[in-house]
Amino acid sequence: MFNIDPYAKRIYIRDAQDHDKYSCSNIVRAVLNDKHWQPYENNIGYGGTLNLVAIQNEQVVGFATTLLPPLPSFKPRGMYDVLRPYIGFVGRLPQDKGQSIGMSLVEEVCQRLLEKGAHRNVFLECENGLKTYYERLGFRYIGPEKVASEHNVQVARGLYRRQCLRHDAMSDFLT
């Protein structure tokens, strides 16, 4: 006889902690396949970043890292300094596809940014194969020319931008 736990699939999001770095590193490597690998897990515990993990059955199954807006005295030097908040990485383990882990992480990033009083826009770059996915999450493409004119920074390819909305407004937007 099987005892099926109705809460086994429940996913919750929390702040990433130092002891999560190994699991987050595994997620980053699984998602990026060494193509564009960066040690995003090193942002955990680093000031000026928001790092979240998705937990299921007491295991880290997703990770997101976001560069927060700088202090007013900060002198921007490049794209990642100007276009903030900037989601540097969102990913989940390949076997957990279809469980809305990435969406949950993006939604929590937006809610945390609103709570911190951050800018209403959040930026990210994505691979061609993920454009439709991020568009479903409310991100809109802005080309290099528009980025340059609006933000006075040069980018090689376009970016995606989304307005952060309250949970209730976002669910109306997604339906």
Structure description:
With 175 residues, the protein is an alpha+beta fold. It has a single domain, classed as Aminopeptidase. The protein is 30% helix and 23% strand. It contains six helices and seven strands. The chain has helices spanning 21-32, 79-82, 101-115, 131-136, 144-151, 167-174; strands at residues 11-15, 49-56, 59-67, 86-92, 121-124, 140-142, 159-163. The strands form two sheets. A four-stranded antiparallel beta sheet has the order 1-2-3-4, with helices on both faces. The radius of gyration is 17 Å and the shape is globular. Mean pLDDT is 81; it is low at 1-6 and 168-175.
Outline of the structure:
It contains 6 helices and 7 strands; from the N terminus they run E-H-E-E-H-E-H-E-H-E-H-E-H. With 175 residues, it is an alpha+beta fold. Residues 11-160 form the N-acetyltransferase domain.
SSE layout and pairing:
Layout: E1 11-15, H1 21-32, E2 49-56, E3 59-67, H2 79-82, E4 86-92, H3 101-115, E5 121-124, H4 131-136, E6 140-142, H5 144-151, E7 159-163, H6 167-174
Antiparallel strand pairs: 1-2, 2-3, 3-4, 5-7, 6-7
**Count of runs of 4 or more consecutive helical residues:** 6
Strand order of the largest sheet: 1-2-3-4
CATH topology: Aminopeptidase
Strand element count? 7
Q: Based on the structure, what is the oligomeric state of the protein chains?
A: single chain
Query: What summary fits the major beta sheet?
Result: 4 strands, antiparallel
The CATH superfamily turns out to be Gcn5-related N-acetyltransferase (GNAT)
At CATH level 2, the architecture is: 3-Layer(aba) Sandwich
- Provide the helix percentage: 25-40%
**What gap, in angstroms, lies between the N and C termini?**
39 Å
Strand content: 15-25%
Q: What are the low-pLDDT stretches, counting only 5+ consecutive residues below 50? A: 1-6, 168-175
* Mean pLDDT rating: 81
The whole-angstrom Rg is 17 Å
